[in-house]
UniProtKB/TrEMBL annotation:
This is Peptide ABC transporter ATP-binding protein. The keyword Metal-binding does not apply. Gene3D superfamilies: P-loop containing nucleotide triphosphate hydrolases. Belongs to the ABC transporter superfamily. It comes from Pseudaminobacter soli (ex Li et al. 2025). InterPro entries: AAA+_ATPase (IPR003593), ABC_transp_ATP-bind (IPR050319), ABC_transporter-like_ATP-bd (IPR003439), ABC_transporter-like_CS (IPR017871), Oligopep_ABC_C (IPR013563), P-loop_NTPase (IPR027417). Pfam families: ABC_tran (PF00005), oligo_HPY (PF08352). The keyword Transport applies. PROSITE patterns: ABC_TRANSPORTER_1 (PS00211), ABC_TRANSPORTER_2 (PS50893). Residues 5-250 form the ABC transporter domain. Transmembrane segments: none annotated.
Length: 328
C-alpha cells in the first residue's frame, strides 16, 4: 500500500530555560500514514505528540528530517506548489472554543475556507457549505447561528467541516475530543470513522486516551520524551505490548468490569518525566524502567522488529514479548 504521508527522522527543537539549553521536542521520529486509515499517536502529556503534528503541517519548523506528502518532500516546495500541498494536509485543533471565531456564523467560518481555495461562485460555496454540514452530521439550519451559540461537540464538527472544505487527503487531529463531554466523544469518533470510509481521508489521531484510540486506529505509535518507543498494528501493540512504557500505559487503562478492576494490580510508572533539556543518557525511559540495567545508560536502545510491522526501541523487547506469550 502506497504511503500518502511519510515522516522521516524528523527533529524539532526549541530554546530551553537557561543559556544554551535546547528542548528537542521531536527527536528522530519516523512514521507513515496510508490513505483511508486512522493511525493513533499516544503518550503522556509533554511527550512531543502535538509538536510532531504541528511540525507536519508547518506550524513549527523542523530542525532536520523530511515530511513527504504523496512522494514529494514538502521541504523542496515553495510558492503555489507548497500551498497546494499544505491544503491537502489539514489540522483539527484540540479546543473547538479557541479554533473558531465567535463573531462568525457557522456559514461564514466555512465560507472563508472555500474562498481561500478559490471557489469564486457564491452559489457554489453555499451549496458546498450545505454538503459539508451534512457530512459532519449538522443540520443546514445551524449555518446562520454564531459559533459561540453551539455546544462543544457542534463546534468541533464545524471545525472538522471547515478542514474538509479544502478537500484534504490527510487530517492531523490533535486531541480532537478531549475537550468534549463523554457523551459527545463517541459521536465525534464515529464521525472520523465515517469520513475515513466515505472520503478515504488518512488521519493521524493524537491522544492520551489509549482506550479511545483502540476503538478507531488500525495502527498505533507510542511516544515518550520525543521518541517513538513502539509502533505497529493495533492488535500487535494492544495485544502484545513489548516496551515497558507501553505495558504500563495499557495497565493504567481502567477495566469496565468493577470486579476485575478491584482485583487488578496496576504497575505504576515510577518517577516523573525527566527534564527535556537534560534527558537521560542511553535509553530515555531507563530512569523509570523496572528492567533497566547499566547498559541502558550507556547505549541507545536498538530498534527490534518482532514482526515486519511491529517495532520496539528496547533491548528487552524479545524477552518481554516471549513472557507475554507465556503468560497468555
Amino acid at each position: 500500500m502506497k504511503a500518502v504521508l511519510e515522516v522521516e527522522h524528523l527533529v524539532t527543537s526549541f530554546p530551553g530555560v537557561g543559556r544554551g539549553k535546547t528542548v528537542r521536542a521531536v527527536n528522530d521520529v519516523s512514521i507513515v500514514l496510508h490513505s483511508g486509515e486512522i493511525v493513533g499517536l499516544v503518550g503522556e502529556s509533554g511527550c512531543g505528540k502535538s509538536t510532531l503534528g504541528r511540525s507536519i503541517v508547518g506550524l513549527e519548523k523542523p530542525e532536520s528530517g523530511r515530511v513527504i506528502f504523496d512522494g514529494v518532500d514538502l521541504g523542496s516546495l515553495s510558492g503555489n506548489r507548497l500551498r497546494a500541498a499544505r491544503r491537502a494536509v489539514q489540522y483539527v485543533f484540540q479546543d473547538p472554543y479557541a479554533s473558531l471565531n465567535d463573531r462568525q456564523t457557522v456559514g461564514e467560518a466555512i465560507d472563508e475556507a472555500l474562498i481561500i481555495v478559490g471557489v469564486a461562485s457564491k452559489a457554489e460555496r453555499s451549496a458546498r457549505i450545505g454538503q459539508l454540514l451534512d457530512q459532519v452530521g449538522l443540520a443546514s439550519a445551524v449555518r446562520d447561528r454564531f459559533t459561540r451559540e453551539l455546544s462543544g461537540g457542534q463546534r468541533q464538527r464545524v471545525a472538522i467541516a471547515r478542514s474538509l472544505a479544502v478537500e484534504p487527503r490527510v487530517l492531523i487531529c490533535d486531541e480532537p475530543v478531549s475537550a468534549l463531554d463523554l457523551s459527545i466523544r463517541a459521536q465525534v469518533m464515529n464521525l472520523f470513522l465515517d469520513l475515513r470510509d466515505q472520503l478515504g481521508v488518512a488521519c493521524l489521531f493524537i491522544a492520551h486516551d489509549l482506550a479511545l484510540v483502540r476503538q478507531a486506529a488500525t495502527r498505533v505509535y507510542v511516544m515518550y520524551l520525543g521518541k517513538i518507543v513502539e509502533g505497529g498494528g493495533s492488535d500487535e501493540v494492544y495485544g502484545r505490548p513489548s516496551h515497558p512504557y507501553t505495558q504500563m500505559l495499557l495497565a493504567s487503562v481502567p477495566e469496565a468490569d468493577p470486579m476485575i478492576e478491584r482485583r487488578r494490580k496496576i504497575p505504576l510508572i515510577k518517577g516523573e518525566i525527566p527534564s527535556p533539556t537534560n534527558p537521560p543518557s542511553g535509553c530515555f525511559f531507563r530512569t523509570r524502567c523496572p528492567l533497566a540495567v547499566g547498559e541502558c545508560a550507556r547505549i541507545e536502545p536498538p530498534t527490534i522488529f518482532l514482526t515486519p510491522t511491529h517495532r520496539i526501541a528496547c533491548r528487552f523487547a524479545n524477552e518481554i514479548a516471549q513472557k507475554s506469550l507465556t503468560d497468555a
